[in-house]
Amino acid sequence: MCFEAASQLEKSSSTSTSPSPYKGRNFHWVFLGCPGVGKGTYASRLSSLLGVPHIATGDLVREELSSSGLLSSQLKELVNHGKLVPDEFIISLLSKRLQAGKEKGESGYILDGFPRTVTQADTLEGVTNIDLVINLKLREEALLAKCLGRRICSECGANYNVACIDIKGDDDTDDTEEVIKERLRIYNKMTQPVEEFYKKRGKLLEFELPGGIPESWPRLLRALHLENDKQSAIA
Ligand SMILES: Nc1ncnc2c1ncn2[C@@H]1O[C@H](COP(=O)(O)OP(=O)(O)O)[C@@H](O)[C@H]1O
């Protein structure tokens, strides 16, 4: 576990009460964690707090899938079976996104869903200096319950979870138990070595989620030596 980057952050962080005290800082952070752990939620909250973009490679892949053609049908096949898309493909998608961001004047980012293989981590390390990698963890039974309850609203596209709210879900989801198990298997085989990759470089911060967002968010901020802001405190 490495708190070096987080403590550097603590030394230099502002005590201002303005909504974005971290704006202008070049955070290059990565979120790791099993499918379903909640990376997207925490990455998105941190991105608002820190004023840097939240770049989720799953979203980049879904955008690509929404275009038509042979390529997208091949990709769909992989994605629907819980498999990873090829390294060269995802690296090229992310490079384009980072380049577009640079042209718009973005500095820094929170990456979510990348890197998922050691080849991806190696490539990223060759082009940028990642400051901190946050590895979110959840107890296994809580993770499975959460994954199996995960749904996407067919009306508005929002994510929700029938394990957290008391309504009956329909069966219109790709998250069958088999696909979930396949995602977890691939995570263990392909992505766990990425944890090791960053651990060796002293960049990995392990964080076990103690429960839901109200309990976990303030603790995560404390672990990162960040201050809560008014907006995220009431969200
Ligand atoms: N870094 C990556 N490497 C390979 N494939 C990826 C990567 N990021 C996203 N994908 C593909 O996009 C799909 C959706 O991504 P995401 O929403 O992050 O997945 P999940 O539902 O597994 O959390 C993944 O199942 C995978 O097929």
From TrEMBL:
Keyword set includes Endoplasmic reticulum: no
Uppermost EC category: transferase
Reactions mediated catalytically: AMP + ATP = 2 ADP
The EC number(s) this enzyme carries: 2.7.4.3
Pfam family, one: ADK
Region listing for Disordered, in residue ranges: 1-20
GO molecular function list: AMP kinase activity; ATP binding
Keywords: Kinase, Nucleotide-binding, Transferase
Subunit (UniProt): Monomer.
Family affiliation: Belongs to the adenylate kinase family.
Protein name: adenylate kinase
Native source species: Arabidopsis lyrata subsp. lyrata
